[in-house]
Amino acid sequence: MTGDFFSSAALALETVRDTLAKLRSVPALTDRYADIVAVDSLEDLIHVPVMRKDELNLALDHLKPKAQHGATWTFQSGGSTGSPKLGYAPTGLYMAEVYEQWKPLGPDDLFVNGWGAGKLWGAHYLMGAYADLTGCTGIGLGAVNRTEYDVWLEFFAARGVTSIGGTPSVLRPIIGRAREIGIKLPDLRTVLWLGEAWNPGLDEDLPVVAPQARRWGLFGSTETWVVGTNTPQCADDTWHPLPSQLVHVGPDQLIDFTSLKPHGLNPVLRYQTGDAGAWVTCTCGVPDRALRVLGRRDGEVKFRGLLLNADALLREVATVPGVLQAQLVLTEYPARGSTCEVLVVPARDTPDGLADRVRDHVLGSAFGGPSTAFHRDPEALAVRATAALIHNERTGKVSPLVHRTAT
């Protein structure tokens, strides 16, 4: 590939022009795109301002996208205790293009879909649409809690499951439990993951539980849908973009995405998810350059497969009467994944039980958000009242979000 903006997709320039026209039709965004006189080539996208969630939400609220055929499916983007940010996709969720490039499953596979269903989350249905294309036999497992692991693992072994999919923070404790109780899954060949970075702990457990299993990943978001694919021969942070995705890495390493789907519903034009990246040569040997994702560079972090906006969650916690200050502490445990602890400083004369009230408030949020993960494992959420938040001893500064790794 040459140039900052390059695509071999058919009708790429026409699709970009159509998306720009849609965005200009949104009254709240007209001035934003007024200076873009013409887009004569994809390279002219360098003059188009980057888009973030607020702009995309304005566009979606005005345009109200509808699929040309079949249903228009609505899913939640990100995860917070506030109102959901929506994304749209037609029946099939664009997975036919993914299937052309990425084929971990075939007709002889028995696939366990371990992504949670409902609550406006899309991954379960995304992989269901993919499974439909492969002709495999599927099991819609969805979210399970720890008390169910043993019986399901015995079922997987008895049935000869060949593939399982889910976010790594969900898969790790399941596979770890199989190792702990001595259950083997000799028929398991593929582990599909989507929604967060690969968990290296799985590399420790899978050779013991399922020696033949190899990881296959997808990267994307509800706004962009699937951006790229990963195979066992790729590094776990490296992705091969789909033809319908125009990926640009800016000088600050922030990635922006432009949808080249002629009938795409989300008007994604230089959309920034907050991820940073770099162009690399992949270890798999595919000659085209690949995208290495370096992690997030904004206020949102991945927690158990969910996009958690720390600032939004803390604003929500602050609405609970008696909360003077609050702070999030995310701790990574090698064996069980992440936990979230909310530290709260009570205001003077606050009645006892503030921590319980805050926890109930988070779990009772209207659209789920982080509570989706906590329903799978309630012990992943803790709230603790404290006299002072974690701070820098030298400067006294308090960060709203603290990351820790358990040893």
Please specify the SSE layout and strand pairing.
Blueprint lengths: L11 H13 L28 H11 L8 E6 L7 E6 L4 H7 L8 E4 L9 H12 L2 E3 L9 H11 L3 E4 L1 H14 L8 E5 L6 H9 L4 E8 L3 E6 L7 E4 L3 E5 L4 E6 L11 E10 L9 E7 L3 E4 L2 E4 H8 L5 E11 L3 E10 L7 H10 L7 H6 L4 E5 L15 E5 L2
Parallel strand pairs: 3-4, 3-5, 5-6, 6-7, 16-19, 17-18
Antiparallel strand pairs: 1-2, 7-8, 8-9, 9-13, 10-11, 11-12, 12-13, 14-15, 16-17
Helix pairs in contact: 3-4, 6-7
Could you characterize what this model shows?
Helix 6 packs across helix 7. The protein is an alpha/beta fold. The chain has an eleven-stranded mixed beta sheet, with helices on both faces. It has a four-stranded mixed beta sheet with strand order 18-17-16-19. Strands 1-2 form a two-stranded antiparallel ribbon. The longest helix has 14 residues. Helix content is 25%, strand content 28%. It contains ten helices and 19 strands. The mean pLDDT is 88.
Order of helices and strands: HHEEHEHEHEHEHEEEEEEEEEHEEHHEE
**Bulk shape:** globular
Distance between the termini: 43 Å
Would you tell me the overall average pLDDT? 88
What would you report as the Rg, rounded to the nearest angstrom? 22 Å
Largest sheet: 11 strands, mixed
Low-confidence stretches: none
- Major sheet: arrangement of strands: 4-3-5-6-7-8-9-13-12-11-10
What is the percentage of strand-forming residues?
25-35%
Q: What class do helices, strands and sheet pairing give?
A: alpha/beta
> Which range best describes the helical content: under 10%, 10-25%, 25-40%, 40-55%, 55-70% or over 70%?
10-25%
**Number of DSSP-assigned strands:** 19
Number of helices in the DSSP assignment: 10
InterPro entries: AMP-dep_synth/lig_dom (IPR000873), ANL_N_sf (IPR042099)
Organism: Actinoplanes sichuanensis
Domain AMP-dependent synthetase/ligase: 61-234
Pfam family, one: AMP-binding
